[in-house]
Design brief:
single chain, alpha/beta, Rossmann fold, globular
């Protein structure tokens, strides 16, 4: 089996420790706040999540920028030159132009290195949903699965990767065009913590409108209880918008009733957090369906 590298982008929200453990190559997206552009490294060397969310809570409105084609080529080409193959697992094509940049890069790299395998998966995922797919790909590679076997697993199971999340301030989703202005107005007036998920197309979809935080967290658990499929994997991840307390509450709710391996709880990074806002809680697991 030929050696291959796994490349993803920072929208995966994995920890830097996990990326280093599995020797992942991670292309940083960018975020802009107070007129300054920062690369979104997993080790948060440019800005800590705590500082980022403090700025957002103060009223600053960040924006984001995708990975470009040249950046993918720059990170992949050294591996291809030395004879390795490349597997790229990209942020959902429905949420970012990053996947399209990767697609163009793959086309160019295949022409430049026709004897090498250059494979691309549209994760249809975001945050630690994308991260959970990358984690399984890296685990399979560590267990000597080929690039074809890993790609086949990802394509077969990515639409079983459930994303359920709740936000405390829907205005961030409104600003990003994820919900209507009318829905945002009603949510704000009624203290609604909406529950959303990522669809099969990789888009954000509002599904339920619990009133209050406790009901919203309980709703996340109920969706997991209803659809969880441990025959694929019992590993799940939780991410949060600088709200570790509620992330741990959700973890405890789940562990009281389900035999799951909550292997990682981590911050939602600035790129995803720019759109979801502070205090978002997100749950990711393999399910019968999304």
């Amino acid at each position: 089996m030929n050696k291959y590298v796994i490349i993803t982008d920072s929208a995966c929200d994995l920890t830097d420790e996990v990326a280093k453990k599995f020797d992942l190559q991670v292309c940083p997206l960018k975020f802009v706040i107070e007129g300054v552009e920062y690369p979104d490294y997993l080790d948060h060397r440019a800005m800590s999540p705590e500082d980022f969310y403090a700025k957002v809570r103060s009223g600053l409105m960040p924006s984001t920028a995708q990975v470009n084609t040249e950046e993918y080529i720059e990170i992949a080409e050294p591996f291809l030159k030395k004879g390795d193959d490349v597997l790229i697992i990209a942020f959902s094509s429905a949420l970012s132009g990053t996947y399209n940049s990767a697609r163009i890069a793959v086309e160019q790299l295949k022409e430049m290195y026709p004897t090498r395998k250059v494979m691309l998966v549209d994760s249809k995922a975001a945050s630690l949903g994308q991260g959970l797919l990358v984690y399984h790909a890296a685990t399979m590679r560590a267990n000597n699965h080929s690039i074809e076997e890993v790609t086949e697993f990802l394509e077969a199971h990515k639409l079983h990767l459930a994303h359920w999340f709740t936000v405390s301030d829907i205005q961030h989703l409104k600003r990003g065009g994820r919900v209507s202005g009318a829905a945002a107005l009603v949510a704000g007036m009624l203290n609604i913590n909406p529950v959303l998920h990522v669809s099969d197309e990789g888009k954000l979809i509002s599904r339920m409108k619990p009133i209050g935080r406790k009901k919203a967290l309980k709703a996340l658990f109920e969706k997991m209880k209803e659809t969880y499929d441990p025959t694929i994997s019992n590993v799940c991840f939780i991410s949060h918008g600088d709200d570790l307390k509620d992330a741990i509450i959700l973890k405890e709710i789940i562990e009281k009733e389900l035999d799951v391996d909550i292997r990682l709880i981590n911050h939602i990074g600035p790129v995803i957090g720019a759109h979801s806002g502070p205090n978002t809680i997100a749950l990711f697991f393999f399910a019968k369906h999304r």
